[in-house]
Design goal:
22 strands, 39 helices, nine-stranded mixed beta sheet, alpha/beta
Length: 977
């Protein structure tokens, strides 16, 4: 029987057509439901269903009527054991699959087949294909009992999944053709998909790139995160600047996810800790919720391996709904427990200015850790069968904490092993230290999480006890390393390294220090009565001088009082738990995410820990997947790269990109390269008109800075440079300005956190500058400034391929790595930036002459801040000129005094230009003049662009994942047969 005819191009289904379509499908499903040899866990129902239209040979034996009947291997077609030929979907079978889901997996009314419905039906069709490989992957992992890595992250910034999934499956052609037959283009259907609102910035996008690479490289791995109902927020740009509204990405459902109602775990808050008769601790009472698993398949590129992203959603048991209160009219009381549980997964990074906000964030982090670890342990026990050997846990499980948000994994794993599984502290601690690893993503002090001890004690009382045990273990290690003789030195080490900050020492540790000092005092008394040579006296005097800052002299009558006073907490300061220190102490490995960042981690952020455990510290420079970030979002450039490198191998082996270097001067390649860039720029022109209303010239240089809005990322430096450019233009004649300046379209994008006032001022300022410049008839197309609202992955996929200059201009030493700089370089965009994060390595690979460098170096920053504090900094006249120009009100009536004031003064919170905008401004605008000069030489610029793509080979996330797998997780690829 032939497949049903396509829907008409008018996007409505004729009465006779839909009747015939439904009749055929229903007839097939009757046979399908009676098919006894169908293995639902390993083979796609939909595609086997479509094949049945041309090959109706189903068995009619009913499995339910014969309990001894076993499901046969999915590779076998019937009870006679006839092997199936490999099924490769073509356009006709894909169209049938789409129409099947339009009819039988309805999210929309049946009368019409419009674009939203076409997307959901198409996505569900693709999901069927993924499920085949998804189930096969984990059946195989379970059979082999392989070691598996689990990547825990509060963010996964996935973007749209449709094009990525069919691209990885190698089915772009069949799906494009099938949708064309159904009256649509693949691109129009793909645009119906909302971005998954599960992340905010580079941290989440990195996690998603890693998942893609894990699957592509056949590594046994999973991701764990939270299923946020409203995401971070949807950003609106109005005359008042940024406004936030809730994301609606789940409003129509998510066709990629599968809820696992049979996979749920209890998560507890508050309560108390009791000691059981057997001596073990038990956490009882409190507030109980349930974490339910939602699974999202992550396909590898041209491989059967399809791994899993498991997201947790929260709810409470049905009995927690107070029916009596509801019927009595006390509705809020009736569903109070339900709302408390649900709100945990409402919003990514809820505002934490209030105690309630802090508590909610902590609940989120613990929910992620507790549910994930319970799941990981359940999987370990299942694979171990009856022979559960906990010593083997680190040999089968690797847990990677993406930043400090999942830090509670450490005490939670210890709690489960000790309180639930009955292991001793020593056994559980050794297992934990061999299992968990930590990726650091920041050197900013405010980003190194610290939680109130009081809040932790209220919310997670058992975990505080365990953290105190870890801290005590650390204290013992530090004392063993540094001794107790030089008390001032010990005090300094404990202050820097302890997990518990500004918290009294444990009684037995304090007693140890007292006894040590008593012993030292007794020794000193004996020394006074002993004969002492002149040489001994001279040596002692010299030692005393050297140690006078750190050594405290004790009297025989008061060591206890003195020790207590030295290590006594400051009652004026809060008692805190330092999560980053806990990560370092409890983790088997600590890695930075770029070479310069890893050096700062070792030499500054965690220097004392590095001296204690140098073997723990590693570098793993970030990477991005070349499939999404060139292959699928930049088809024009991809075709050119494949042509000139001889194949598509570069998509999985980016070393092949280096071959472009030998053709960088080739006139034919340069012509093709410029044409690809022109096509991508035209897409940006259309996009900007649609999203902002601004019309820009495709002949201008497209200058882009898109990333989270933060003072250290210095969007303020960029917009001040634009203001300076605009002012100079206004002072010239039309002829002079055309001769002096290259036309530019300056594009900004990114979200300021909802409570970050200064960042929101920067957004407002950028939009005000744009509103003035873009409507100035004297300037015309010479300069445009556009802020793109609601920047996300899908916006990036439009902007990055067409960009020509990209700004990565953070204060040196502040950016851990960056990943957008890698994406821009891959797409032949030239970078202007400081020696910060991955910029350092990008510049080395693309060539110094192909990177526009400016600004102070990382090692100079502290000295420059000191210079500022001492009042010695003299600002450049051009910087003062810009500030004065802004203060004239040329950009509107909004009062920017607080914004500009942050760049002035020598000290004080929010003042003194902490991020050195004024210091780097002169070198920045001089560097921009070099950019203009280079852009005028089209051959030179194109060569630079080619060499940027060629030099980006190092920054594939495949390379990064190989390093994690080899050096931290100790896992091997597992290729499905």
């Amino acid at each position: 029987m032939a497949a049903p005819s396509a829907f008409s191009s008018t996007n409505s289904i004729s009465h006779s057509g839909i009747t015939d379509f439904r009749r055929k499908l229903r007839s097939t499903i009757v046979d399908f439901l009676n098919y006894s040899n169908y293995n639902a866990n390993a083979y796609s129902s939909t595609f086997r269903l479509h094949r049945s239209w041309s090959r109706r040979n189903f068995s009619v034996t009913n499995v339910a009527s014969n309990p001894q009947q076993k499901l046969i291997d999915p590779a076998v077609d019937d009870a006679n054991g006839t092997a199936l030929e490999k099924f490769e979907p073509d356009a006709a079978s894909v169209a049938s699959s789409i129409k099947f889901h339009a009819e039988f997996t309805p999210s929309f009314s049946p009368e019409r087949f419009e674009l939203p419905k076409a997307f959901y039906a198409t996505a569900e069709s693709v999901r069927d294909m993924l499920i085949i490989n998804w189930n096969a992957t984990y059946d195989y992992y379970e059979k082999l009992n392989v070691k598996q890595a689990y990547y825990l992250s509060m963010e996964f910034l996935q973007g749209r999944a449709l094009l990525n999934a069919i691209g990885n499956l190698g089915l772009t052609g069949p799906y494009a053709e099938a949708l064309r037959k159904l009256g649509y283009t693949l691109e129009d259907v793909a645009r119906q998909e909302p971005d998954a609102a599960l992340g905010n910035g580079g941290l989440g996008r990195l996690a998603s790139c890693f998942l893609d690479s894990m699957a592509t490289l056949n590594y046994p791995a999973w991701g764990y995160g939270l299923r946020y109902k409203y995401g971070l927020f949807k950003q609106l740009i109005t005359t008042d600047g940024q406004e936030e509204v809730a994301e609606n990405w789940l409003e129509m459902g998510n066709p990629w996810e599968i809820v696992r109602n049979d996979v749920s775990y209890p998560v507890k808050f508050y309560g108390e800790v009791i000691q059981r008769p057997d001596g073990r601790k038990e956490w009882v009472g409190g507030e109980d919720i349930i974490a339910v698993a939602y699974d999202v398949p992550i396909p590898g590129y041209k491989t059967k391996t399809t791994i899993n992203l498991r997201l947790w959603s929260t709810k409470v048991a049905v009995e927690n709904f107070d029916l009596h209160a509801f019927n009595a009219g006390e509705h809020a009381k009736a569903y109070e427990a339900l709302k408390k549980a649900e709100k945990i997964c409402y919003v990514l990074y809820p505002g934490d200015e209030s105690l309630e906000g802090k508590s909610l964030r902590l609940k989120q982090q613990y929910t992620l850790c507790s549910a994930s670890l319970q799941d990981i342990i359940a999987r370990f026990e299942k694979r171990s069968r009856e022979l559960v050997n906990w010593d083997q846990f680190p040999e089968k499980v690797a847990v990677q904490m993406n930043d400090t948000h999942p830090t509670l994994c450490i005490p939670e794993l210890l709690r489960i092993l000790m309180d639930v599984k009955g292991l001793s502290w020593k056994e559980a601690w050794e297992i934990t230290k061999r299992t968990v690893a930590y990726t650091n993503h920041t050197v900013l002090p405010e980003a190194l999480e610290k939680w109130s001890l009081e809040l932790l004690q209220q919310l997670l009382p058992r975990h505080v006890e365990i953290i105190e045990m870890i801290d005590k273990e650390l204290l013992t290690t530090i004392i063993a390393e540094y001794g107790t003789k030089v008390t001032g030195l010990l005090q300094e080490k404990l202050k820097e390294m302890r997990i518990l900050d500004n918290i009294e020492l444990p009684a037995d540790i304090l007693e140890l220090l007292v006894k040590s000092q008593e012993s030292l005092t007794d020794d000193s008394i004996q020394d006074e009565n002993s004969d002492e040579t002149v040489e001994d006296a001279d040596r002692k005097e010299e030692e005393t001088k050297e140690d006078e800052v750190k050594t405290k002299v004790f009297k025989a009558d008061g060591p206890v009082k003195d020790i207590k006073s030295i290590f006594e907490p400051d009652p004026k300061q809060p008692k805190l738990v330092r999560m980053a220190n806990l990560c370092v102490v409890g983790g088997r490995a600590v890695n930075g995410v770029a070479e310069i960042h890893s050096e700062i981690v070792k030499n500054e952020v965690f220097h004392e820990f590095y001296r204690l455990w140098p073997e723990k510290f590693q570098n793993k420079t970030n990477g991005v997947t070349p499939r999404r970030w060139i292959g699928f979002c930049n088809l024009e450039l991809s075709k050119i790269i494949s042509k000139w490198t001889g194949s598509e191998d570069w998509l999985t082996n980016t070393e092949k990109l280096v071959e472009l270097r030998k053709f960088a001067d080739n006139a034919e390649l340069q012509s093709e390269w410029r044409e690809a860039k022109r096509i991508n720029k035209m897409k940006i022109v259309s996009f900007l008109k649609e999203k902002t209303g601004y019309v820009v010239s495709p002949g201008a240089m497209f200058d882009v800075q898109v990333k989270r809005i933060h003072e250290y990322k210095r969007q303020l430096l960029n917009i001040f440079g634009i203001v300076y450019r605009y002012k100079k233009m206004k002072e010239m004649t039309p002829e002079e300005r055309k001769a002096k300046f290259v036309p530019r379209v300056c594009i900004f994008g990114g979200k300021a956190f909802a409570t970050y006032v200064q960042a929101k001022r920067i957004v407002k300022f950028i939009t005000d500058v744009g509103a003035t410049i873009n409507h100035d008839p004297d300037i015309g197309d010479l300069l445009k400034v556009v802020f793109v609202p609601d920047y996300n992955v899908s916006v990036a996929e439009v902007l990055i391929p067409g960009s020509e200059l990209s700004q990565h201009i953070s204060t040196a030493g502040m950016e851990a790595s960056g990943t957008s700089n890698m994406k821009f370089a891959m797409n032949g965009c030239i970078l202007i930036g400081t020696l910060d994060g991955a910029n350092v390595e990008i510049r080395e690979e693309v060539g110094e002459e192909n990177f526009f460098l400016f600004g102070a170096r990382a090692h100079e920053i502290s000295g420059l801040r000191k210079e500022r504090a001492e009042g010695k900094f003299v600002p450049d006249p051009r910087f003062e000129e810009v500030k004065a120009f802004v203060r004239t009100g040329v950009f509107g009536t909004y009062n920017y005094e607080e914004l500009i004031g942050s760049l002035e003064g020598n000290e004080g919170y929010g003042r003194a230009d902490y991020f050195l905008v004024g210091k780097d401004f002169p070198s920045y605008i001089e560097c921009q003049e070099k950019v203009d000069e280079a852009y005028r030489d089209r051959k030179k610029w194109t060569k630079m662009s080619i060499l940027n793509t060629a030099g980006s080979f190092k920054f594939s996330s495949d390379r990064t994942i190989h390093q994690y797998a080899r050096d931290i997780w100790m896992i091997e690829p597992v290729v499905l047969p």
